C-alpha cells in the first residue's frame, strides 16, 4: 500500500473521524498573505497563467496559424536561447573582469603602501574604497530598485513556481543587478557574484519574453509568440541555467542547478533548449578567455573566470581515507545546518532594521562594510610571519598582484599566511586553499581564524541590501574548513590538503544548499578533476542528509521568510483528511454566459479575483438547471470591455466578433503592465448593454468535485500548473459551481487557520529531534 | 498567446467547425491493441496504479501507522537504494570481467594459431567458439525467457511510463539477462552490454520492490511497504540509473540517462535517492578496480571497466576547428537518422522471421553469428601489412593479448591495422580509436572498411534474440567515423585524431539516441576530459537537431514497433478539436454502493475492465438522483470477494469490516501475480448476498466533464499519472458518470480510428521534408 512522503503522518489522528470536517465555511475569506518581500521591498504577488485558455477565439486563432508562424515560433525559440546564452555569457565575463580589475587595483595600491610602511594610509585607502564601493550599490538598490537586492534566487524560484511580483525582471533591475553586483563584490564584502548571475540571466531572458522593452523602443514583432507565461517560464529557466553556467564556467552544472533547484516544471524539450543555452555560454566564455590569456583584458584579466585547477595526474585514495571523508561530510552537514539557522535569525533581525526606512538599509550595509574592512585589515596582524619556502614555484613574498605569499606587515623573505587568505579576493583565497603541494604553507591557527572569520562574515553579509550571492562565500568557508580538517588528521590520510579543501567546500555547500547532483557536477567542472567523483558524491550525500535532519535548504528558508506562496509538489498528510469543501472560501462571483456590462464592471471594481466561472442559466442553457460553461479571466474581461462589442439585448454574438480582436490583445503582458478596470471609461448607456462571454470563456476548465480530498486536488493543481481550479457540487440540485481554489487555498497557514484542530497533527519532515523517539519505539522501549 | 509544441498544428482544419465532432460513440469498443512484444514474445500489457486509492480502509490504515513504520519505510528506501547499487555494481563488474576473460582467451588462442601459421584451424576455433557462445544465449532466451531478449530499454521505459507486462522483471529474466549477455557479447556479435545492464538494474530493483521472491523463499517483512506501483517505479528508476552507471563507470551520466531518457515522472527526492544509488556504484567499482589492477582478476582483468583515457594536458582548439566540428555533427546526425531508419526496417523483417516459431529465432541468431565470424576473420586479409613504427610505446606487433598492433597474417615487424580494430573486442577497438599520438597508425581505407563493417553489423545484429545493447556498437562505429573525418581533413585542424574519434562517437550517439545532457556527461566521464565540454555540447546538439528532422530516437522507434501504449507528455493538436465525449468508449459497467455479490462476479467474469465507478442510487443516496461515490479497482473487488464479508440484505457494513482485512491484502502484487476472478469459489447462497463497497472505494477519483477538451484531459491523465479518469456529464439529469478514460483512449491510433476525418490533419513533428515548403512560404514564394 502506498505511503508517499506526504502520507508519512504517523500521528493517530482519530479526531477527524469524530468531528466531521466537512462544514460550510464558504463565507470565510482567505486571509493568507498576497504580498511578499521582493528583493528588499514588500510587494503584492500574483499567480501566473500556465493553463491554455481553450476558448472559441483562441481556437479560431490557432486554426488560422499557418506553417510560417510555426516555423517562426520554433526558429525564435532557438534564436532566443542563443541570444540569452550569448548575452549572459558576455555579462558574466564582464562582471568577472571588472571585479578582478577593481579589486586587483585596490589590493595592489594597498599592498604597495604597506610595503612603503604607511600602514595607516593603507587602511584608510582600503576602508574608504570599500565604503564607497558598498555605498554605491546600497544606495542605488535601496532607493531606485529594491528588487535587485540579495541573490534573487528565491524570487526566480518562486516565479518558476508560478508566483509573479512586479519589477523583478525589469530592465532597471537588470542594470542595477549587474553594476551593483560588480561594485559590491569588489568592495571586499563577503558576498558572491554567482547568485546575482542567476537573477541576471533570468532578467535577460524575461526582457525577451516580454517582447523587448516598449519604453526603450526595443521590440520585435516575432517576439509576440512569447508573450505568455508558459513560454516566459521556459525562457527564464534557460536564463537562470545560463547565469550559473557563466558565473562558474560550468555549463552542465548550471543546467542541473536550474533543473534541481530552480524549476518546478520541466520537460525534455526544455532540457535540450537550456542545454543549448549553456553550451553557447561555454563556447563564448572559452573564446573570450583565450583572448584574455593573451593579455588583452587589463592588468588582472588573466584572473577572471577561474577554474580552480587541482588536477594532479594521480589522485589516489584508498579505503583508509574513507573515515576522514565521512567525518568531513558529517561535520560539514552540521555546520551547514548551523549556518542556515543563524542566517535565518540574522535575516529576520535585518528585515526589522530594513523595515524602518530606506536610510536604515543603507546605514546597515555601510556598517557591515566598515566592520568587514576592519576585520580584514586587522586580523592578519595577529598572525606571525613565516619564512618563505625555498622551493616555492612563485615569487615569495608575492610581488604586487595578489598571490600565495602576501607580505603584509612582514619583513622581506617572510610572508603572512593569514593575509594571503584574508587580504585577498575570495577567488584567490579559494585558489590558494585548493592548490596542491602547499601543505606547509598555512599554520593551523591561521586556518582556524580564517574559517571562523569567513563563517561569521558570510552570515552577517548575506542580508545586506546589495545584489549578493552565497556560493563563493560558502565555497571559501568550506575550503578553509576542509583544509583545517586535513591539517588535523595530517599524516593519517594520503589525500593532499588541496583535495581536502575541495571536499570541505562540497560538504558545506551540501549542508546549506542541499542539492546534490548539480553541486557535484559544478564542483567537478570547477576543479576539472573527474577522478574525485566517487568521493564528491558520497560527501555531498552525507552532508545533505545530516543537515536535512535539522532544517531546510537555504533558498527555501529565505523564500519562506520573504513570504512567497510557494506550492510544494507533494501534499501534507493532513490534507488527506480534508476535502476541498473544507478549505474553499467565498464569496464566489459568477457571471452569466451573456452578462450585463455594468454588472461585470461592478464585480471587477469591487473584487480582486482574477478568474470567474461563467454559467448558462435556464433560458440560455439547453437544460432545465443552470450549467457551468467555463472560466473567464479578469484580463480577458478587461480586453472585452475595452473592445466594446456590446449588444443592447442579451443575445449570442455572431462570428464576426473574432475580427474585432486580434490575438495580441489577449496576450499576457509582462508583470505589472496589464490594464486596470479603472482605466476603462464606459458610458451609462454602454453599462446597460450586454456582452456575450462565450467566445472568450475557457470552456475546458479543470474541475474537482467538492468531496475530493484536498491532497488529490493539490496534486492536480500543482502538476498541471493551474491558477484556478473550479469546485463543482456533489449533488446536482444546487448551483453548478460552488467555489474556486487558488494557490493560496493550498497554503498550510490558510488550511491550519481554518482548521486549528489540525495544528497539532501537522507533520513536519522527520527531523533529528524526532529520531530518538522513533528509534526507542523501534527497539521496543516505548509502546 | 500560448502555442505549445503540441499546438503547432499549422493546418487550417476548418472541417471541425463544419461537422460537429461531438456525437454519441459510446457504444464503440476501444479496439486499440492491449498486447505488445516484450523481449521477443507477444504478451498482454496492463496499466499500473500510481493513484492512491483514498478509501476509508486505507485512511484507517494510515492513521494506525506510527512513527516506527515511518522510520522503517524511510530506512528501507535508503537501504534498498544501497542494496540495488551494490548488487548492480557487482553484476556490472562481473559482466565486464567475464567478457574480458572469455573474449581475451578466445583471441589469444586464435592469435597464437595464426602465429603458428595454422590459419584454417584458427578460423575454425574462432567461428565455432563464437557459434557456441551465441547458441547458448539464443536458445536460453528463445525457449526459456523471451523477455530477456534485446536491450530491455524500451520495456523499462514503457514500464516507467505506466505499462506493465508479465515477466519483464522476474528473477528468471534477471539470470538469463546476465549470463546471456556475457555469452553473447563474448561471441564477437556486434552488440553491447550497457543496454542489458539497464534492464538488469531494473530487474534487481524490481525483485526488491515485489517483496523478494516467494518462490525461492527470499522475502523480508519490511519489504511490504514497497508492494505498490509508486514505490516500485522509484526503485526501478534508480535501478536503471545504476545499470548505466555500472556499465560505463559513469555515475552522473547514468543518473542523467535515467532522468532524460527513461523516466516519465521525476521529483527531487527521487533524484537524490538515485544519485545515492549511483554513488554506491561508483565507490564499489572504484574499489574493485583497485583490486583488479593489482592483478587478481584473471589474465585479462585489467581490461575490465574501461575508462577511455584521452587526457592530454593541452587539449587546445581554436575557432578554426569549428567548421570541422560542425561538419562532423551534421553528417553524424544524418548517419544517425539513416541508422534508425535501417534498423527499423531490419527489426520489422526480423520480427516476421521470429514470428514463425522459436526455432527460427535461434536459426536467425546463429546465422548472424556465422556471418559475423566470417566477416571479422575475412576482412583483415584485404588490408595490406604496415611496418611497425619505430617509436611505438607498446610492443609491435602485439604479443598475445589484444593490443594496438595485431600481427594477424603479417610477417614479424609488421602489423595489420584492420585486424587491430576488427579482430579485437569492441572495447579495445574503441581504446585504439580514441588513443592520442596514433595519427599514423591506421590507413585511410582501413578506417573506411571498418566503419562500413561496424555500421552494417550493428544494424543487422541488434534484432537478434539475445540480450543485447546498442551503446558500445554505436560508440565504435562513431569513433571510426570521427577518425575517418579527421584523416580526411588531416592538417586543416589542430585537433588530434583521437579527439575526433571521441567527437565522432558523440555525433553518432546524438544522431541515434537523441539525448544530449546524459550523453555529454557520460562521454566526459568515459574519457575523463572536461576541457572538451564545449565541443561535445555543440556536436551533440547539432547531430540531435539534424537527426530529429528525419525520424525519432532509436528507443522510441523500437518501443513503437513493439506496440507499447506509451503516453506522451504533450497533446497532439487535433486533440484540442475533440472533447472527451468524442473518444470515450463503452459499454460502461457500474456498481451500486451496496452491490449483489453475484452481480459483481458476473461483471468481473464477462469484462476485462480494471476499474468500476460506484454509484449510490436514490434510496441510498441523500439526493433524489443517483450520485457518483467513487471508483473501485478489480483487484480490490477480488480481495473483497475472497474475504467474503457479505450480508444477506443491502446494508452498510459496520466498522469492524476493517479488522477482517489487513493492508497487505490490498497491496499490489508483482506483475502477473494477482488473483483471477475464476480462482474464487462462491456458493449459490453467497452469490445472492450483498457487499458494501463504500469502505473500499476510492472516494476521490479524478473526474472531467464530458465537454472537456481531449488535450486537457490528456495533460491531467499524464501529469497526475492516472489509470482511470471518470467522465461526468455536463447536464445533471443523466447518470452521474458517462464513461471511463484509460491510457488506450488517448492513443492516436484509437482517436484517428474513431475520427478518420482527422487523419489528414494529423500533425507530425516538423520533419525535414516539410521544411522546404515552410521556408518557401516564409520567403513569400508560396501564398
UniProtKB/TrEMBL annotation, chains A, B:
The leader peptide range reads none
Domain CBS spans what residues? 696-757
Keywords tagged on the record:
CBS domain, Chloride, Chloride channel, Ion channel, Ion transport, Membrane, Repeat, Transmembrane, Transmembrane helix, Transport, Voltage-gated channel
User: A GO molecular function for this record?
Assistant: voltage-gated chloride channel activity
Location relative to the cell: Membrane
* Annotated membrane topology: Multi-pass membrane protein
Give Gene Ontology CC terms. Answer: chloride channel complex; plant-type vacuole membrane
Q: What Pfam family does this protein match (any one)?
A: CBS
Q: Which InterPro entries match?
A: CBS_dom, CBS_dom_sf, Cl-channel/antiporter, Cl-channel_core, Cl_channel_pln, ClC
Checking CDD domains in the record gives: CBS_pair_voltage-gated_CLC_euk_bac
Its transmembrane ranges are 73-94, 114-136, 270-289, 322-342, 362-383, 444-464, 470-489, 501-524, 530-550
UniProt lists the family membership as follows: Belongs to the chloride channel (TC 2.A.49) family.
Quote the protein name from its UniProt record.
Chloride channel protein
Organism, by scientific name, is: Trapa incisa
Amino acid at each position: 500500500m502506498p505511503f508517499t512522503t506526504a502520507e508519512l503522518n504517523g500521528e493517530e489522528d482519530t479526531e477527524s473521524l469524530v468531528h466531521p470536517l466537512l462544514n460550510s465555511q464558504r463565507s470565510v475569506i482567505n486571509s493568507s498573505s498576497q504580498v511578499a518581500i521582493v528583493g528588499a521591498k514588500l510587494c503584492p504577488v500574483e499567480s501566473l497563467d500556465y493553463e491554455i485558455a481553450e476558448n472559441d477565439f483562441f481556437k479560431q486563432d490557432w486554426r488560422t496559424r499557418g506553417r510560417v508562424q510555426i516555423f517562426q515560433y520554433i526558429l525564435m525559440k532557438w534564436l532566443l536561447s542563443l541570444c540569452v546564452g550569448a548575452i549572459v555569457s558576455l555579462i558574466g565575463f564582464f562582471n568577472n573582469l571588472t571585479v578582478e580589475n577593481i579589486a586587483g587595483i585596490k589590493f595592489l595600491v594597498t599592498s604597495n603602501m604597506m610595503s612603503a610602511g604607511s600602514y595607516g594610509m593603507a587602511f584608510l585607502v582600503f576602508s574608504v574604497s570599500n565604503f564607497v564601493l558598498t555605498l554605491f550599490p546600497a544606495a542605488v538598490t535601496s532607493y531606485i530598485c529594491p528588487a535587485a537586492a540579495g541573490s534573487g534566487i528565491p524570487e526566480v524560484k518562486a516565479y518558476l513556481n508560478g508566483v509573479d511580483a512586479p519589477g523583478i525582471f525589469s530592465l532597471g533591475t537588470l542594470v542595477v543587478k549587474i553594476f551593483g553586483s560588480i561594485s559590491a563584490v569588489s568592495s571586499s564584502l563577503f558576498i558572491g557574484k554567482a547568485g546575482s548571475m542567476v537573477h541576471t540571466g533570468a532578467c535577460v531572458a524575461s526582457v525577451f519574453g516580454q517582447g523587448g522593452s516598449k519604453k526603450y523602443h526595443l521590440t520585435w514583432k516575432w517576439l509576440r509568440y512569447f508573450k505568455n507565461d508558459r513560454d516566459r517560464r521556459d525562457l527564464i529557466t534557460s536564463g537562470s541555467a545560463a547565469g550559473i553556467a557563466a558565473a562558474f564556467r560550468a555549463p552542465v552544472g548550471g543546467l542541473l542547478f536550474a533543473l534541481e533547484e530552480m524549476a518546478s516544471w520541466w520537460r525534455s524539450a526544455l532540457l535540450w533548449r537550456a542545454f543549448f543555452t549553456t553550451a553557447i555560454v561555454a563556447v563564448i566564455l572559452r573564446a573570450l578567455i583565450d583572448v584574455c590569456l593573451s593579455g588583452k583584458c587589463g592588468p588582472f584579466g588573466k584572473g577572471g573566470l577561474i577554474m580552480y585547477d587541482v588536477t594532479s595526474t594521480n589522485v589516489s585514495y584508498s579505503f583508509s581515507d574513507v573515515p576522514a571523508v565521512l567525518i568531513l561530510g558529517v561535520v560539514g552537514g552540521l555546520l551547514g545546518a548551523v549556518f542556515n539557522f543563524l542566517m535565518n535569525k540574522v535575516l529576520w533581525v535585518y528585515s526589522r532594521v530594513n523595515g524602518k526606512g530606506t536610510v536604515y538599509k543603507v546605514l546597515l550595509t555601510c556598517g557591515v562594510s566598515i566592520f568587514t574592512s576592519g576585520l580584514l585589515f586587522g586580523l592578519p596582524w595577529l598572525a606571525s610571519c613565516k619564512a618563505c619556502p625555498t622551493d616555492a614555484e612563485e615569487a615569495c613574498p608575492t610581488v604586487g598582484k595578489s598571490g600565495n605569499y602576501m607580505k603584509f606587515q612582514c619583513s622581506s623573505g617572510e610572508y603572512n599566511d593569514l593575509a594571503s587568505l584574508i587580504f585577498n579576493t575570495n577567488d584567490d583565497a579559494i585558489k590558494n586553499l585548493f592548490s596542491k603541494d602547499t601543505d606547509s604553507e598555512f599554520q593551523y591557527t591561521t586556518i582556524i581564524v580564517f574559517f571562523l572569520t569567513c563563517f561569521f562574515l558570510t552570515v552577517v553579509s548575506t542580508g545586506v541590501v546589495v545584489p549578493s550571492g552565497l556560493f563563493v562565500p560558502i565555497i571559501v568557508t568550506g575550503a578553509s574548513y576542509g583544509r583545517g580538517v586535513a591539517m588535523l588528521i595530517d599524516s593519517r590520510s594520503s589525500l593532499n590538503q588541496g583535495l581536502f579543501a575541495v571536499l570541505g567546500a562540497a560538504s558545506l555547500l551540501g549542508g546549506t544548499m542541499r542539492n546534490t547532483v548539480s553541486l557535484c557536477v559544478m564542483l567537478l567542472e570547477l576543479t576539472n578533476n573527474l577522478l574525485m567523483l566517487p568521493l564528491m558524491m558520497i560527501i555531498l550525500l552525507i552532508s545533505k542528509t545530516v543537515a536535512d535532519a535539522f532544517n531546510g535548504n537555504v533558498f527555501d528558508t529565505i523564500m519562506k521568510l520573504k513570504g512567497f506562496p510557494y506550492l510544494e509538489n507533494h501534499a501534507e498528510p493532513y490534507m488527506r483528511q480534508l476535502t476541498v469543501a473544507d478549505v474553499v472560501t467565498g464569496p464566489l462571483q459568477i457571471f452569466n454566459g451573456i452578462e450585463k456590462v455594468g454588472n461585470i464592471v461592478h464585480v471587477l471594481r469591487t473584487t480582486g479575483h482574477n478568474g470567474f466561472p461563467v454559467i448558462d442559466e435556464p433560458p440560455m442553457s439547453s437544460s432545465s438547471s443552470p450549467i457551468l460553461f467555463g472560466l473567464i479571466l479578469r484580463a480577458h474581461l478587461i480586453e472585452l470591455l475595452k473592445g466594446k462589442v456590446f449588444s443592447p439585448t442579451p443575445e449570442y454574438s455572431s462570428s464576426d466578433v473574432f475580427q474585432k480582436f486580434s490575438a495580441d490583445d489577449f496576450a499576457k503582458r509582462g508583470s505589472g503592465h496589464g490594464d486596470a478596470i479603472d482605466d476603462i471609461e464606459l458610458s451609462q448607456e454602454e453599462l446597460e448593454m450586454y456582452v456575450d462571454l462565450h467566445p472568450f470563456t475557457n470552456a475546458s476548465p479543470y474541475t474537482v468535485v467538492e468531496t475530493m480530498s484536498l491532497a488529490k486536488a493539490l496534486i492536480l493543481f500543482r502538476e498541471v500548473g493551474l491558477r484556478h481550479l473550479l469546485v463543482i457540487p456533489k449533488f446536482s440540485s444546487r448551483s453548478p459551481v460552488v467555489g474556486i481554489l487558488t494557490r493560496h487555498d493550498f497554503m498550510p497557514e490558510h488550511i491550519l487557520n481554518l482548521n486549528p484542530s489540525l495544528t497539532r497533527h501537522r507533520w513536519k519532515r522527520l527531523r533529528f529531534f524526532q529520531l530518538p523517539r522513533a528509534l526507542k519505539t523501534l527497539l521496543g522501549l516505548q509502546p
